[in-house]
Design goal:
By secondary structure, the protein is mainly α. It contains 13 helices and no strands.
Length: 241
């Protein structure tokens, strides 16, 4: 009987600690949303003290460290979150972002690969990995990632814009221009798409259309468009806002 009572007491204590940990975790999440990162750390430290097996608390504390630009500390927390629950894609994604900030691109790509094995339905994983691969000059692989997003969500502006950049870098100015134009059909204020479309048109010898789109980019505040217009458009001086 004494053993059973002790066991029951220990079980209740464990349950109380778990509930307390979850309460501190929720307060930490609220502080994160309010961009009170130091305050979030305090709550998340207490959540982890109450329950050192709380994988979500480690992941969330990693996010707080990331926002404070403490990338090694963030990675250490993501490592522990993965050790506690390797089937949650979020610590893999978050660690990829932190590793990217530290310039560890190959390791970041491996984290995206693993996150996608766990959660292939999450389009942002393809988008992020595609952008990383673009930075790594793995252009064909980057395009494949953006293709995945567009196949599932044909009007995805970020994927179309980034695929347009890939096509441009590969010298396929016609395809790049089509992607930029599709972005603009969905969002007529997408400044970078006007600029990208203008560059494609200049490459294709369509100077009149290019100058028109440069004007629109200038009106929306694109920083490079005035200089490009001054070089390529008759009459020269950039428009003033």
């Amino acid at each position: 009987m004494r053993f059973r009572c002790n066991y029951l007491w220990l079980s209740l204590l464990s349950l109380a600690c778990t509930r307390s940990s979850e309460a501190f975790l929720e307060r930490g999440k609220v502080a994160l949303k309010e961009e009170k990162f130091e305050e979030a750390l305090e709550f998340l430290n207490r959540a982890i003290t109450q329950d050192p097996s709380n994988a979500q608390a480690f992941n969330t504390r990693g996010v707080a460290h990331f926002n404070l630009k403490s990338y090694p500390e963030a990675i250490a927390d993501y490592n522990q979150a993965i050790r506690l629950d390797s089937q949650d894609y979020r610590p893999w994604l978050n660690r990829a972002l932190a590793r990217t900030q530290l310039g560890n691109q190959e390791e970041a790509q491996q984290d995206y690969d693993q996150a996608l094995r766990i959660a292939p339905q999450v389009l942002d994983l393809y988008l992020n990995r595609g952008y990383l691969r673009y930075q790594m000059r793995k252009l064909d692989q980057a395009r494949q990632d953006f293709d995945q997003v567009i196949a599932r969500e044909p009007g995805h502006k970020a994927a179309l814009y980034n695929r347009g950049n890939v096509f441009y870098e590969q010298g396929n100015f016609e395809a790049a221009g089509q992607d930029f134009a599709q972005v603009l059909r969905a969002d007529s204020k997408y400044t970078n798409a006007y600029f990208g479309l203008a560059l494609c048109e200049l490459r294709l010898g369509k100077a009149e259309e290019a100058c028109l789109h440069l004007d629109q980019a200038i009106q929306l505040g694109h920083p490079e468009a005035p200089q490009v217009k001054a070089r390529h458009c008759p009459g020269g001086s950039p428009l003033r806002k």
